[in-house]
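Posting for a labmate who doesn't have an account.
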Amino acid sequence: MSDERFDLSYLGLIAPGADPEQVRQRLRAVFKLTDKGTERLFTGRPVIVKRDVDFATATRFETIFAHAGATLTITPVEGPNGPDSVDAIAATDAPARVRTIDTGHLSLAPQGGHLEEPPVGGGPDLDISYLSLVPGDQWTLADCAPPPTPTPEPDISYLSLAPVEPRAEGNTNPQLD
């Protein structure tokens, strides 16, 4: 494991649930960056953090970035060990990282074939007898609307009408006329 060498780069990826502004502030504080240096990390293009480091240094930097809320990319340096050195990093319980995977041994399923055999037996028995279709062009989108909820009638049983008293001759109210 002492022969393994890695390149460390940062793509501006922020861990799920992390606040982007706090990630910027933490990385600025840890690496003592200027505002311009911090902005350079978050351009979306890969920025090389360290080149040709050993396993311990790669793990230490990955932990620093993880505590800041960022995701560091660790790439094995091609050498006598080859790309198998990624397995050594993956064996640790360090946070997940972006890495290149050799897909040369993968292939596609045949057209119309299945990646896995379908399960034997059907799904659950569902009662769909209450469902129906309207034949032809005899339906509209209004048919899909839920039925209107009925407006409840208010209880007015406690109300009553009082008899109207006749007006006296001398009193005239312009509002009643």
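Reply:
Got it, the structure tokens are right above this. The helical segments are 20-31, 35-41, 55-68, 86-90.
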